Amino acid sequence: MKRLLLATLDEYIDVGLGNLYRHQEGLLQKVSLETLLQRNPYLLPMKNVGTASKLIESWLNEFLSSSEEELFEDFLVQLAYLVASETFSSEKSSATGVDLEFVNNGVEYLVSIKSGPNWGNSSQHTKLEQDLRKAVATKRQGRSTANIQPVLGICYGSTKTSYVRGYLKVVGQSFWYLISQDKNLYTDIVEPIGYRAKEHNEAFDTEKAKITNRFTRAFIDRFCDPTGAIDWQTLVAWNSGNFNPNDW
Asked: Whole-angstrom Cα distance, residue 48 to residue 52?
């Protein structure tokens, strides 16, 4: 089962990472220097960044990282669902706030999956608690004979398993064990993610380098003085200059 599971996961990881990188490549094609310049200009001199290429590269990484994090969180959630479906023939749940359902040793697990421990605000935590309580109540109205256990499963982190707000919170290695019955799976999946990412990364890095070089040249032309130093006053004026005497 483990070898078959890992082969299935490898195929999914290849496809999933390919989709993620294609999305990021699409963002690279759409981004403009003007978009990157919409940053706090007063923070930059404090960071002592004097090289235009480093400045552009850091802005580009910030622009891509928020989208990348969101996409990868969804990727992890879908990966977890695939593991559970292969291990327990689990089903995607139709209940609000519940991602999957499966039965193991007479216990019916209703699982909501989050990628990391720092998810949501207090209102979202309260909403999850309500959704899981409602899902359990619905199952019991259907006269389910199984012991029903609502779970918040978190893909990474080291928090110990505990009961919180009426559900079982299972994190990191323990979560991957819950859905796979394999205590080593949480580290086994790192290898295929690593080498598949390396395969997809080459083309992405080439395109990113082109964008960085092009934006760097444009930035130097517009915001560097004849000595090559960044003209912070000109940059701030472009970013924030909007004074109109008629406004006063």
From this structure: 12
